[in-house]
Amino acid sequence: MSKTYEMMWDCGFCGSSKLLGKTHRYCPGCGAAQDPSTRYFPPEDEKVAVEDHEFVGADKICPSCDAPNSAKAACCTNCGSPMDGSKQVKIQQDDAEESEAKESTNQPPGPPKKSNLPMIIGVIVVLAIICGILSMWSEEKEVSVTGHSWTRSIDIEEFQRTDSATWQDKIPTGAIKGTCTTKENPSKTKKVEDGQECNTVKKDKGDGTYTETEKCETKYKEIPQNDQWCKYQIDEWKLKDTKKASGNDLEPKWPEVTGLKECSVNQLGCQKQGSKKEEYFVLFSDPESKEHKCSFDENKWKSIAVGTKKTMEFGIAGGIDCDSFDKAK
Q1: Rounded to an integer, what distance in angstroms lies between the CA atom of residue 35 and that of residue 312?
Q2: For residues 66 and 37, what is the distance between their CA atoms, to the nearest angstrom?
């Protein structure tokens, strides 16, 4: 349902304000004719309702004196000239209808709104430059090699039957399905109506009045659906233990692995060696006697002798740049 109210206008000659667009065709203060292009929507607390309009349709501009007249007028009420060939006044638009109205009336778009995007981009660029400068800042220090260290490890895996639970359609192939219970599954939802969202749209009728219409759209929400949460058992290789070895010499060794229950086919309780890991570190001391270490591959690690001196780079936080070793003096 829509309601009709009078537009407002301000006299540009004597300064009278908030004149009624339908009632006050001429300024009560100085008699100046209303300029229909200056009409505007009134504040909520100053709206004047219009009932039982005498005239219907948008106003027309007198081709002789440019005075606004009702669409019903055959002759200009200001100068008496015939209204043949008169043009309709410019229609004011509410924000909610502006885009659609511009397309239907072929009116040129208004000035573009100022965007904060340039300022945001500027801040991001400045921060990026600062971070880049800080990341590139470094100083050189002479360091000496004080030692070596190494670690090696071997994972021990065992073929085990493990208990787990998941949604029924996610149970892995080969698993033994157990009991299931019904509960909400957040990943499965259904869209349901959740009331309405309404707003008021204003539309200029072109005769000094405008209508207010409430437009509502249905809101929706997602609610979880019930699903089957199931327990299951599955036979798989799981990490059982990790054997480790370490030292400070140049002769790294893999840890001893004995007593494994190895099988030709997968059976519960069978064991095997899993992934292997190895790391090799060179230890450095800087002029302040602070210790640092860098990781290298085994061959390079062995080639770096204790007592070797190098001028290496250090970052802003005081950390050694291990990549600078190859280009160090």
Answers
A1: 79
A2: 12
CA 177 to chain centre: 41
Structure tokens at 284: 């450095």
Per-residue pLDDT reduced to its tens digit, 146-198: 999 999 999 999 999 999 999 999 999 999 999 999 999 999 999 999 999 99
Measured CA to CA, the distance from residue 228 to residue 247 in angstroms comes to: 53
For 112, other C-beta atoms within 10 Å of its C-beta total 6
What Rg, from alpha-carbon coordinates, does the chain have? 42
Nearest Cα residue to 242 out of 292, 276, 193: 276
Provide CB contacts within 8 A for 96, sequence distance 6+: 199, 201, 202, 215
Residue 75 CA to residue 310 CA, distance in Å, equals 101
269: left (phi over 0), alpha (psi -120 to 50) or beta: left
Whole-model pTM over 0.85: no
Give the max Cα distance, the chain.
116
